[in-house]
Design a protein that fits this description.
Blueprint lengths: L5 E7 L16 E2 L2 E2 H10 L5 E6 L4 H4 L6 E5 L6 H7 L10 E6 L7 H14 L3 E7 L10 E4 L5 E5 L6 H4 L3 E10 H9 L14 H8 L4 E6 L11 H21 L3 E2 L6 E2 L4 E2 L4 E2 L4 E3 L3 E2 L4 E2 L3 E4 L2 E2 L4 E2 L3 E3 L4 E2 L4 E9 L2 E2 L4 E9 L1 E3 L10 E3 L9 E3 L4 E2 L4 E3 L2 E3 L4 E2 L4 E2 L8 E2 L11 H5 L2
Parallel strand pairs: 1-4, 1-6, 4-5, 7-11, 12-15, 13-16, 14-17, 15-18, 16-19, 17-20, 18-21, 19-22, 20-23, 21-24, 22-24, 23-25, 24-26, 25-27, 27-29, 28-31, 29-32, 30-33, 31-34, 33-35
Antiparallel strand pairs: 2-3, 6-10, 7-10, 8-9
């Protein structure tokens, strides 16, 4: 069987007033990505010939996040999902193939489900295929009902507010995900009617039009209703984010990563974890973070756009900011913050320190309470600490400054000048004891 070329149309025109937000709902973050970006990623995995996003009249913010090659068209007025779908027709003029139609506020729609639906349409020879599922207590109660004909095919989809009492009892519901033959879709959309409770053009009515013309529509029953979980409120957003988190964590665990408590561990989809890494509870891994084999991160660690090498240790209560790089067996310990800095192999910053814009050499140990004073009020400067250096507690390194290999720094020192290799730097006032001071203060 020859698979027809695919085009994807994502309906993204809704403002999402129930979010009660100045931000369009499709731009709210769900587990590290805007809601719409999840649908875009699912569509991109199909390698479609064209991807069209239908935005509303105020869609500039949505357009701004669209990847290269994705086209946006504007639905001038919110006249319903049917009108939104036919807005894409001009952009797909002359396209011969199948059109995947989906909602932009369904972040859990995955590539496998879309591929299966496209295959079901092609294999059945139907005019369209619709992804359906059995409603549950939490998902689908207010979705459109699937009405099947005597032959088992989908006869029509009825929206809940237009359904009869008998139709409301049907358990199979519409996911809002479809695959249509392009040559049959556009004429069907032109014949939609506003004769319904909302006075809108329903995309779902295209199914009835096709069946009325003698075509068949396949219903592809899916076993996971979460693929159709839409975002209408912030509660929906939290629920969807948690499910995305669980999917991501499960994939990592099946690939050989230990996640001690998946329910408290958030890993964004762009993060890379090597097998045998261990992620402790209450850890957040974001952006382009990479974690090597045998490394341990957490508990209570936040890591953003950082690289953690094999066997390295991060946490507990550690913050790695963008540009932090830990080589093999390096350590960033308790209450440590590191930004735009490199720790070479086996270098350690065990506790209570801020390291910014610094390079730390192999086998160096940074004492507690270390601070690299990297900003002079106008520009950032770097601190370079060599190999096998031993710094003491409560040191401040005023950048730019270089500490040579094998050097030592004394406790409480503020290091403002370079320290030669193997030297001991002492930069503090001499202690002076004033006898009898306390007795005089007491009078």
């Amino acid at each position: 069987m020859t698979t027809p070329p695919l085009a994807c149309v994502i309906l993204a025109g809704g403002r999402g007033t129930r979010m009660k937000s100045a931000t369009p709902k499709l731009l709210h973050q769900a587990c590290g990505r805007p809601v719409l970006a999840w649908g875009l990623a699912a569509a991109a995995a199909l390698e479609p010939a064209r991807t069209i996003v239908v935005v509303g009249a105020e869609g500039d913010e949505v357009r701004a996040i669209l990847p290269d090659g994705v086209e946006a068209v504007t639905q001038a007025q919110p006249l319903g999902t049917g009108d939104a779908a036919r807005t894409a027709r001009g952009a797909l003029e002359g396209f011969a193939g199948d059109v995947v139609m989906m909602n932009g506020d369904h972040p859990l729609t995955d590539p496998a489900s879309l591929r299966d639906l496209a295959a079901a349409r092609a294999e059945s020879g139907a005019a369209a295929a619709v992804l359906t599922f059995t409603r549950t207590a939490t998902i689908g109660a207010d979705f459109g009902r699937i009405v099947r004909g005597p032959d088992g095919g989908v006869e029509r989809i009825v929206e809940l507010r237009d359904a009869s009492a008998e139709e409301r009892e049907l358990s199979e519901v519409n996911s809002g995900i479809y695959v249509f033959r392009a040559d049959l879709l556009w004429p069907a959309l032109e014949r939609l009617s506003t004769a319904n409770d909302q006075g809108e053009l329903y995309l779902t009515d295209a199914v009835g039009v096709l069946v009325g013309d003698g075509h068949t529509v396949a219903g592809h029953l899916h076993d996971d209703p979460t693929v159709a979980l839409g975002i209408n409120t912030r509660a929906d957003l939290a629920a969807a984010s948690a499910l995305l988190r669980d999917r991501i964590n499960l994939a990592h665990m099946l690939a050989g990563v230990t996640i001690v408590d998946p329910a408290t561990t958030w890993i964004e989809p762009s993060v890379t974890l090597a097998p045998d890494a261990t992620i402790e509870p209450f850890t957040l891994l974001r952006g382009s973070t990479r974690v090597g084999a045998g490394a341990t991160v957490g508990p209570h660690a936040v890591v953003v756009d950082a690289a953690i090498g094999p066997g390295a240790s991060v946490g507990p209560f550690c913050y790695l900011r963008p540009g932090a790089e830990l080589a093999a067996d390096a350590k960033a310990g308790t209450f440590v913050e590191i930004k735009n800095s490199q720790l070479a192999a086996r270098a350690k910053v065990p506790h209570l320190s801020y390291i910014g814009d610094a390079s730390i050499g192999e086998d160096t140990n940074i004492g507690a309470g270390a601070i690299t004073a990297n900003y002079d009020g106008r520009a950032k400067h770097r601190t370079t600490i060599g190999k096998d250096v031993h710094t003491s507690s409560d040191n401040v390194f005023v950048a730019p400054v270089t500490i040579g290999d094998g050097a030592w720094t004394a406790a409480g020192s503020v290091i403002t000048d370079d320290v030669p290799p193997d030297a001991l730097a002492v930069a503090r006032a001499h202690q002076k004891n004033i006898e009898g001071y306390g007795r005089r203060k007491r009078g």
